[in-house]
Amino acid sequence: MRASQWEMALAVERALKNGRMLVAEAETGTGKSFAYLVPALASGMKIQVATGTRHLQDQLFHKDVPMIRSMLGQMHRVDLLKGRSNYLCLYRLDQGGHQMLSWQSDAAAEARYQHIRRWAGYTQRGDIAELGAVPETDVIWRSVTSTTENCLGNDCPRLTDCFVQKARKRAQEADLLVINHHLLWAHWALKADGLGELLPAADAVIIDEAHQFADAGLQFLGEHLASGALLELLDEVGASSLAPIRIALGQAIQIFMQHMQKHPGRIECRLVLGQDAEVNQAFAAIVDHYSQYCLAMVQTTLYETLAQPVREHMQDMLRLLQRFSVLDEQDSVMWLEVHRKGFTLHETRLDIASAFAQARKALRSNWIFTSATLSVAGNFDHFCRELALHDVDTHRWDSPFDHAQQALLFLPPAMPDPASPAYAPAVHALALDVVQMARGRTFLLFTSHQALRAAADYLRERTDYPLFVQGTQPQAALLEAFRASGCGVLLGTYSFWEGVDVRGEALSCVVIDKLPFASPGDPLTQARMRVLREKGLNPFVSFQLPQAVIALKQGAGRLIRDIHDRGVLVLCDPRLTQKPYGQQFLKSLPPMPLTRDISDVRQFFEN
């Protein structure tokens, strides 16, 4: 084990033995997964490991844990548990397959469906991640997996074969259980509502990718309703006698969408439903038509044949629509986003700290938080404040990689102000120069899709290096094609800033267009800033700045992933040197030589 990895393992072991809460930042290359898994498996305790992504969840369970178990020579009971939508539903496969093909009737869809049918005959776990032939993002999975609303529960004829039930039973028996953040928040929400539990008791919980943990809570603790899901529910119910009301509801949604064209993106409901008469009237029509549908459905003979979860889901949707019509906000923010095919209503609870404090009190477990990016210039105050963590041990370990020899930080001089119309063209010209020097082999990371598209259009006409643009292929396929090219240029937004690992010469340069401050127009950002002001805090200092620093650390971390990697990090934003807060960003990056002379970049690539 590396020295830093050994030190972290000892810190985790002490925390488990002494019942101390630990916040541990271990930069890229430390080997933090092994550093917490070894003492966890050796402790003899019941432990849950929660990750931010399913990718890391699968890696821990299928790769890291088996390796450690063989090293320790112990036969611990280890298992993996995901959310319901990650498991094949045999009943829906039997009932819905042909109906699914009726609306996706092409040869490729039929081939994917047949892959699923064959796999269903031999899979032991039913985890859809097993079937590489059908990507997890494929819409086909929605027809052969279940949700809480459409699951038949104990009335299901395939209950004894249910993969979700089998997974939960194995979870109860596991010494170490690998889960994810969303499942943990879902467990607490059910427990708080007195509706049961998803997870067994644990002596300790280890939160990996902990910088995402509070945001996962924001996404989960609340409610949402998508217009598409509303119509899909009515189509699934299939009451032909109510078809005119269903058609009227669809038309009302289209009218609402037309009025919302003047309010694009994400916006607080009070700014549209509460202030725009046309939008409010269109939304009232949606509520009215859906209310009529529910009232008429209750009076049909079909209603009694519906599964109880389906009936409850219909009523929950009505309740939520009615709440949005009166904007009943209590310690939360109501907002909506409009997308190509419809809209989604969201109610998000803002006080994550108190929700987590209640969960900790109820579970009585020990807590360990770890990530490569938790501190701001070595300070953990922001992370601890987000979750109301007090009396905690904090440690950080620098990356074992030699950034002083392996990397170069380039801050281009004389860049325009990021708010200036001249900024994007300057970034494009700089990116082209750097791409040519690096002979491709570059990630261009952007803070907006608009900036990404503009840069892609510019480079497409001016470079012969292959471009791999987010949105043109699934992310995994895009990364594989980039690696295989050996000279590619990948353009991505936030989904490529973290969790992406490209080692070797295929990635030798990372260019970041702007400091990743959250959009001030985002409704969640606005609401969180408002709450902080009410508490007498400075939102920029206590929220916007630390969030941006951690995001930049993630993006910069894509560059050096191995002891043999070499590369240049280009940060285009002039605020790094022109604003006092720029030092917070620079102090949070790994120590590497800094230059403002582009000839140093050229020389680095020539050596």
Ordered list of secondary-structure elements with their pairings:
Layout: H1 3-18, E1 22-26, H2 32-42, E2 47-51, H3 54-72, E3 78-80, H4 90-103, H5 107-120, H6 163-173, E4 176-180, H7 181-192, E5 204-207, H8 213-220, E6 222-226, H9 227-237, H10 243-259, E7 266-268, H11 277-298, H12 302-305, H13 308-326, E8 332-339, E9 342-349, H14 352-363, E10 366-371, H15 381-386, E11 393-397, H16 403-406, E12 407-410, H17 423-438, E13 442-445, H18 449-460, E14 467-469, H19 475-485, E15 489-492, E16 509-512, H20 523-534, H21 539-556, E17 567-571, H22 575-578, H23 582-588, E18 594-595, H24 598-606
Parallel strand pairs: 1-10, 1-11, 2-4, 2-5, 3-4, 5-10, 12-17, 12-18, 13-15, 13-16, 14-15, 16-17
Antiparallel strand pairs: 6-9, 7-8, 8-9
Helix pairs in contact: 1-2, 2-3, 4-5, 7-8, 9-10, 10-11, 11-13, 17-18, 20-21
Q: Could you name the key traits of this structure?
A:
607 residues; alpha/beta; seven-stranded parallel β-sheet; 24 helices
Q: Can you describe what's shown?
A:
The protein is 48% helix and 14% strand. The chain is globular, with a radius of gyration of 26 Å. The strands form 3 sheets. The chain has a 7-stranded parallel β-sheet with strand order 3-4-2-5-10-1-11, sandwiched between helices. A 7-stranded parallel β-sheet has the order 14-15-13-16-17-12-18, with helices on both faces. It is built from 24 helices and 18 strands. Helix 4 (90-103) runs antiparallel to helix 5 and helix 20 (523-534) crosses helix 21. The longest helix is centred in the middle third of the chain and has 22 residues, at 277-298. With 607 residues, the chain is α/β, with parallel strands linked by helices. Strand 8 and strand 9 form a beta hairpin.
